[in-house]
Specification:
Layout: E1 12-18, H1 25-38, E2 39-47, H2 58-68, E3 75-81, H3 84-91, E4 95-100, H4 103-120, E5 123-128, H5 138-146, H6 157-172
Parallel strand pairs: 1-2, 1-4, 2-3, 4-5
Helix pairs in contact: 2-6
């Protein structure tokens, strides 16, 4: 290590949008990295009134993410309908943060980032997730949980508990 002090960077607020249905450890990794890089992270649970709520409704997702990030300083969780760049503006965010797992994610997210910038001027910062979490997706977590598989190593404990309860409720119906 050198004796050169690291530069001081003013904290910035970023928006991390997603459906988070459910939150998994890859998402949590991106949130932690965004906290380290920017200081303040607004996790925006995005939903569309015209589409079904998913496995968990937006309020349940907000509760789980809030519980899973309770130890992280600078994280707030909100729900938003509409466009992510609108949510970023409403949250007073300086940037949008998006996590990347695969080259395919980059292709999709880059196009969206360029469109958002052309329309609003909002910039997107890409954060790669840890390599050991690159395979995790909410879709696979839901599918495995629905078939009774153990996903506790892929999600925060609060989410693992909620998945077990939800699957049990669905089996009763």
């Amino acid at each position: 290590m050198s004796d050169v002090p690291s530069p001081t960077v003013a904290a910035r607020r970023v928006l991390y949008p997603g459906s988070f249905d459910p939150l998994h450890l890859g998402h949590l990794d991106v949130i932690e990295q965004a906290c380290d890089l920017f200081g303040e992270v607004v996790v925006a649970v995005m939903y569309n009134f015209a589409k079904p709520a998913g496995m968990f409704d937006p309020d349940e997702r907000v509760e789980m993410i809030t519980a899973a990030t309770a130890e992280l300083v600078g994280v707030t969780v909100q729900k938003h309908a509409g466009l992510a760049v609108q949510a970023a503006g409403e949250a007073g965010a300086d940037f949008v943060v998006k996590g990347l797992r695969t080259p395919g994610d980059f292709e999709i997210e880059q196009q969206m980032a360029q469109m958002n910038h052309s329309v609003t001027g909002m910039r997107t910062v890409f954060v790669p997730c840890r390599p050991d979490l690159g395979f995790v997706s909410s879709r696979f977590v839901r599918e495995i949980a629905n078939y009774g598989g153990d996903v506790s190593h892929l999600v925060p404990p609060v989410v693992a508990d909620a998945l077990v309860r939800r699957v049990a409720e669905d089996e009763e119906d």
